Inverse folding.
């Protein structure tokens, strides 16, 4: 399984590039409907990034809420520009300056944070796909501790075509777990059920608090019930407000 | 498959992955292409029968089956027109956006147990999300055509789709609630056995939910009696008034593709997916001793029969959609909104609460004649491997990952900074929290 092209990186770059290019297109376009259209593409490729990272629930959420929410923007855009054909928005010079300052500052902060993360690098061996077994493996930058699950971890070899393949086949044929070592990088398959973990965290205990040894820190890792409820109430208030605003106007008479 | 190309054929791995991906894309794209052609022919025949006509008879022998090729050829050879005032780029792109959305939804739709292009944990959710994006193509088409008819059609469509997503989502949640998972493969496999195991017959609430689901699905794929976006008696042809040739065909394929998808979704959620009403194939499989976890030729055959079963159910669903289209008159826009907001949404909400009570409080183990094991109220020990990122011996059985994807997004690095938790630990912590 020695793939000269690292597909994970390839698709990351592809989606990232599309997201960035169309985000810029949103800024530099002057037609409001086209802006909304570019925004759809940008947000859509962001959801592609989520899927790539394995967060399929968040990815689908991004599609449903953000990309779907752009629909309303698009409709408003169409309704606003329905007066004349393809009315465009012009940005004045002062707005450009202000926007560049705010945007540049935000970008600087984000870029600094992103670059300052020490172990941000791609997998040293390309993504692999296990043939018959459960374990599709990928080297991880984080070395595991000794208590790691031996069933699904495998010691990754340096770039060694035949050796790595033979080792993988052997590990899968007889289901023998690879001996845990500390110096080798560990790889494992993680269950893809991110939705379950998110659902549990929203309504009950947080999954990541289960493995926390310290009771004090575990106490601090509370679930997200309270934020969830606050957001719900907030949305309810917004709904009622919108309904109120819409209703106070004179009603349309429907023609039968 | 990538492995086959790389090792047996001797291609480099990158090319092997590309070839595999191309083959899978081609297989999947056959569904909207061939499906659309077959459904157009079917629609002609069914509508003809409903209106006491014969439909196409001359083209290609007995049932006029060559009509589908004739239709396709006619459309492809038509001139690609564009109004002079149109917003060129958007006008050209819009049909493909619709088609892409309808096509991408098929990615997550399983055709037999494990036979999905990408088996997803949140497949139901993904399909709903992507199908909702189809409306973008319609709105952009309506806007960029620079035509009043198109614009009206697009505005109606957007109002309709935004409204109907709410009851549709609520309806879909009901079987998900009963099953306890959003993975379509698991949902369908749970309904194995006699037809009483189907979620349609699980309880009265799911039974009613199906009909609300069908109504909302009809509206969401923009079919009559909800086809206000292309109401030909008032809006000429609505959002695709200005389209011709292949671009118009793309809209059409998107429509028929999403008809297939919602029918398939309905078949999986309510009608047992690839499980027949009487488990003949299952009986044979267990008689022959076919192991369902090990890939083998027998399992492949079982899946193939399941695929036929699934396609049959889906085509039945499409037929029902066609039947409804040629039977019921088109609703007015205010009636459409009323149907959604005053009827579908409240009914779906009540069904949701009812199904929750039924499965959670009244009959947690189902009716005595129901033999399926549902996930929601399963033992915590079964649920726990899903929750932790540690050792999950049951994970391979409960969620068989497909080897279909050319590049596997399932495998990814995970920071191993936490210890594996067990169900016992989980339960202990819960009781600890309760005592505090």
């Amino acid at each position: 399984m020695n793939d000269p092209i690292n597909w994970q990186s390839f698709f990351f770059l592809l989606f990232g590039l599309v997201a960035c290019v169309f985000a810029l297109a949103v800024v530099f376009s002057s037609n409001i409907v086209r802006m909304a259209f570019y925004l759809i593409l940008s947000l859509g490729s962001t959801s592609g990034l989520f899927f790539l990272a394995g967060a399929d629930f968040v990815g689908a959420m991004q599609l449903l809420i953000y990309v779907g929410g752009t629909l309303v923007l698009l409709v408003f855009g169409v309704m606003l520009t329905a007066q004349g054909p393809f009315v465009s928005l012009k940005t004045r010079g002062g707005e450009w300056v202000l926007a560049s300052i705010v945007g540049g500052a935000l970008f600087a902060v984000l870029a600094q944070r992103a670059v300052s993360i020490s172990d941000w690098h791609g997998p040293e061996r390309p993504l692999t796909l296990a043939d018959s077994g459960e374990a599709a493996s990928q080297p991880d930058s984080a070395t595991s501790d000794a208590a790691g699950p031996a069933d699904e971890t495998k010691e990754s070899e340096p770039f060694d075509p035949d050796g790595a393949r033979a080792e993988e086949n052997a590990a899968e044929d007889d289901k023998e777990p690879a001996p845990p070592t500390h110096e080798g990088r560990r790889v494992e398959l993680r269950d893809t059920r991110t939705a379950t973990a998110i659902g549990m965290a929203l309504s009950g205990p947080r999954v990541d608090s289960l493995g926390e040894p310290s009771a004090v820190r575990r106490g601090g890792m509370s679930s997200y019930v309270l934020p969830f409820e606050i957001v719900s109430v907030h949305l309810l208030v917004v709904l009622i407000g919108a309904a109120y605003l819409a209703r106070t106007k004179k009603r349309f008479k429907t023609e039968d | 498959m990538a492995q086959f190309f790389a090792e047996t054929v001797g291609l480099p791995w990158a090319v092997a992955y590309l070839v595999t991906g191309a083959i899978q894309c081609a297989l999947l794209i056959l569904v909207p292409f061939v499906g659309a052609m077959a459904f157009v022919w079917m629609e002609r025949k069914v509508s003809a029968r409903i209106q006491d006509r014969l439909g196409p008879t001359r083209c290609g022998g007995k049932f006029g089956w060559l009509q589908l090729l004739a239709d396709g050829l006619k459309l492809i050879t038509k001139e690609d027109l564009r109004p002079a005032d149109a917003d060129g780029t958007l006008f050209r792109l819009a049909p493909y956006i619709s088609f892409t959305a309808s096509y991408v939804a098929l990615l997550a739709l399983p055709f037999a147990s494990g036979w999905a292009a990408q088996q997803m944990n949140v497949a139901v959710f993904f399909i709903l999300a992507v199908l909702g994006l189809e409306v973008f193509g319609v709105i952009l088409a309506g806007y960029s055509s620079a035509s009043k008819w198109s614009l009206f059609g697009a505005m109606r469509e957007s109002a309709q789709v935004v409204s109907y997503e709410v009851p549709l989502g609520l309806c879909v949640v009901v079987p998900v609630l009963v099953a306890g998972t959003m993975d379509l493969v698991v949902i369908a496999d749970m309904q194995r056995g006699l037809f009483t195991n189907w979620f349609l017959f699980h309880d009265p609430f799911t039974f009613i939910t199906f009909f609300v689901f069908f109504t909302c699905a009809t509206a969401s794929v923009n079919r009559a009696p909800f086809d206000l976006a292309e109401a030909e008696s008032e809006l000429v042809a609505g959002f695709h008034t200005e389209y011709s040739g292949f671009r118009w065909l793309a809209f059409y394929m998107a429509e028929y593709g999403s008809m297939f998808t919602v029918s398939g979704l309905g078949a999986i959620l309510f009608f047992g997916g690839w499980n027949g009403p009487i488990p003949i194939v299952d009986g044979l499989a267990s008689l022959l001793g076919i192991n369902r976890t090990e890939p083998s030729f027998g399992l492949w055959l079982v899946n193939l029969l399941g695929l036929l079963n699934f396609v049959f159910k889906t085509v039945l669903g499409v037929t029902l959609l066609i039947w409804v289209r040629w039977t019921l008159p088109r609703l007015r826009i205010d009636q459409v909104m009323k149907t959604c907001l005053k009827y579908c949404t409240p009914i779906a909400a009540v069904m949701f609460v009812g199904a929750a009570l039924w499965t959670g409080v009244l009959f947690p183990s189902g009716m005595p004649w129901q033999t399926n094991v549902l996930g929601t109220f399963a033992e915590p020990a079964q649920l726990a491997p899903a929750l932790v990122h540690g050792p999950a011996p049951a994970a391979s059985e409960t969620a068989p990952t497909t080897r279909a994807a050319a590049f596997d997004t399932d495998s990814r690095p995970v920071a191993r900074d936490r210890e594996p938790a067990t169900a016992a630990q989980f339960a202990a912590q819960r009781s600890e929290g309760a005592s505090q």
